[in-house]
UniProtKB/TrEMBL annotation:
Organism the protein comes from: Streptomyces antimycoticus
Pathway membership, UniProt: Lipid metabolism; butanoate metabolism
Domain 3-hydroxyacyl-CoA dehydrogenase NAD binding: 6-178
The protein's name in its UniProt record: 3-hydroxybutyryl-CoA dehydrogenase
Site (Important for catalytic activity): H135
3-hydroxyacyl-CoA dehydrogenase C-terminal domain location: 181-277
Residues reported to bind NAD(+): G10, A11, G12, V13, I14, G15, D33, E87, K92, S114, N138, K269
């Protein structure tokens, strides 16, 4: 029996993590990005994910069926597609008609966006019912809850396809209605924003903020460590999307966050964010 096929579009932090987790669950994955440098980084990231999974699982690393490509046509035969491109509504709206042409009719597209309303992406397709929001958390193989977003046009068939994918990957899900930021990021991003303000004002260090969230509120990871894992550039882009849609002050990016991104301190992926990851 052949393995189920999955196309993953976008080979950044979350895209490479999705590709690894799906391949580890038995999918034959095609990971597509426009840049060869991004694909090279994704190969290295997949190896890191698998080495860590093997270490935590007390086993040897396993070979994974992942094909890396710069050609969108290579996902034409996929039975399901997860889109993880940069958090840019114009960029995604340009991509979705291309996916519509490349994929067979009825193939579900999971939009793994941080804040862009799913309906805004689905309306670019001939069949908007095939699009579902599927908000994976990083690292995908270790976080078993997924936020699933049903847009007004999302079909029952597409939701069932998502349920099958997540079931094969060993995930649980909560299905919510469509709105900018959905649940997780509409709540989390203002918390990160305010935590950055607390640090900038000298009230507490990043570690003190996170220790309080863990010790007092039972969080497994505080907001600033979480922000570093997400990527502070992604946090800023997400806040910008939320501010554009809601226009309220809690989504106005704090200058400290923007300054960190401008300095290249984007979190774990760059080696430095609120914490250091480069051994210094």
């Amino acid at each position: 029996m052949s393995a189920p096929t999955l196309g993953v579009i976008g080979a950044g932090v979350i895209g490479s993590s999705v590709a690894h987790a799906a391949a580890a669950a038995g999918y034959a994955v095609t990971l597509v990005d426009t840049g060869t440098a991004a694909l090279d980084a994704a190969r290295a990231a997949v190896r890191r994910h698998e080495r860590l999974a093997a270490l935590l699982g007390g086993r040897e690393p396993r070979p994974l069926d992942i094909r890396f490509s710069t050609d969108l046509a290579d996902v034409a035969g996929a039975g399901f597609v997860v889109e993880n491109t940069t958090e840019s509504e114009p960029g995604k709206r340009e991509l979705y008609p291309l996916l519509d042409k490349a994929l067979a009719p009825g193939v579900t597209i999971a939009a793994n966006t941080s804040a862009i309303p799913i309906a805004r992406l689905a309306e670019c397709l001939a069949d908007p019912g095939r699009v579902v929001g599927v908000h994976f958390m990083n690292p995908v193989d270790r976080i078993d809850m997924v936020e699933v977003v049903r847009a007004p046009a999302t079909s029952d068939t597409a939701l069932a396809a998502v349920e099958d994918l997540l079931g094969r990957m060993g995930k649980r899900s909560v299905v919510v209605n469509d709105a900018p930021g959905f649940v997780i990021n509409r709540v989390l991003m203002p918390v990160v924003n305010l935590a950055a303000a607390v640090v900038a004002d000298g009230v507490a260090t990043p570690n003190q903020v996170d220790e309080l969230f863990k010790g007092c509120l039972g969080h497994t990871s505080g907001p600033l460590r979480t922000a570093d894992l997400i990527g502070l550039d992604t946090v800023v882009r997400t806040l910008e999307v939320l501010h554009e849609h809601y226009g309220t002050t809690e989504f106005a990016t704090h200058p400290h966050l923007r300054r960190m991104v401008d300095e290249g301190r984007t979190g774990a992926k760059s080696g430095r964010g609120f914490y250091s990851y480069d051994g210094s």
